[in-house]
Amino acid sequence: MQAKGAPSQNTPPAVLRRAITLPLLIFYGLGVTIGAGIYVLVGATAAQAGIYAPASFLVAAVVMLFSAGSFSELSGRFPQSAGEAAYVEAAFKTPSLTVLTGALLLLAGTVSAAAITIGCAGYIATLLPLPLWMIIVLSVAISGAVAAWGILESVRFAAVLTLVEVLGLVIVVTAGIWHQPTIIFALPSVFPDPSDTAALGAIALTSLVAFFAFIGFDGMVNIIEETENPARNMPLGIFITLMISTLLYFSVAAVAVLLLPLEDLSTSTAPISLLFERLTGVSPLAITLIAIAATFNGIVIQTILSSRIIYGMAKVGRLPKGLALLNTRTRTPLIATVLVTASTLIFALFFPIGILAERTSQLVLVVFILINLSLLRIKWRSDPAPDGIFIAPVVVPIVGLITCIAMLAGPFIAIL
Questions:
Q1: Residues 6 or more apart in contact with residue 17 via CB below 8 angstroms
Q2: Whole-number pLDDT of residue 81
Q3: Is the pLDDT of residue 80 over 60?
Q4: In this structure, are residues 242 and 57 in contact, taking their beta carbons and an 8 Å threshold?
């Protein structure tokens, strides 16, 4: 006899809810990218590259562009959660390499969420007289609860916050142009002379930090099982997200380095709030609230991303099957979400933001190298592709591989 309330043997297992449209997918990508980016790192890039910080964002965007092409094709060939691990599995058929890829992604996701949490706490601390550790604990706990709420509810929540955070950046850029209209003519000064090797070296090193600001579009592939018409919407979502992020990052960084003393910008724990206050002369309360929304949004989406990596790997047997269990009401992987939330809290409490950002970039670059190699191997074998998906020219993964290796090796070469 079947126990009361127990699921029938004929009841199909819970599956992820395919509810994310192209606009919601773009908002998801922008939310995690911008939340992990300019609101947190504009001061850090200015500290390293000075007035050339905007150029560092462009270098990072170029590296991202080619890898975005590889991700777009692979997401069409293998439309499943834990996408990167699935791509490496399909290309190399080596379980240990697959697990390594998933582990790198999971570590990068939780470290990234921790870095964003510290940035978020820095903004909150300007408004609430609470210890920083307490703000970090509360931020992580609330973001974990939102991520466990349900994918459609979480992404809709993130979409609203993303609109707010994009509006905040637009306001800052508009205020900068209004404050000093001639700033447009000063834009060439953010690019160094090609013969200035010191400036070029600073840009190359800073691009590793700036690269962190673009991390997000790759995570979009991990919600592909919850995306409508993924063959069409995923490549569009990836490229549109990258284009909008690049435009916003360059514009805000240029306004910041051209209109603020670099020392003030590089030492501020709330750089966007400082920029707004200096440009407008009014209270930075509104822009601080927007920055809090932006960074909190980044924590939520990184938590969703990391939990889906655990879910995807457990689903195919690379992690314990229990981690792939979905809550019947929320249809989200609650155990995976709790594990990610706990790991994020540990990193956020015990490591500084600069170290977390650099380590995230390095971890993701290793994964990107594996992804570009995977597409090259699949193309070399001439594996047939499903009809109607995005197909990248072979030069795309080649350049993507070379640029990722160069960015990853840059700091080590500089030390030598």
A1: 150, 151, 152, 226, 331
A2: 67
A3: yes
A4: no
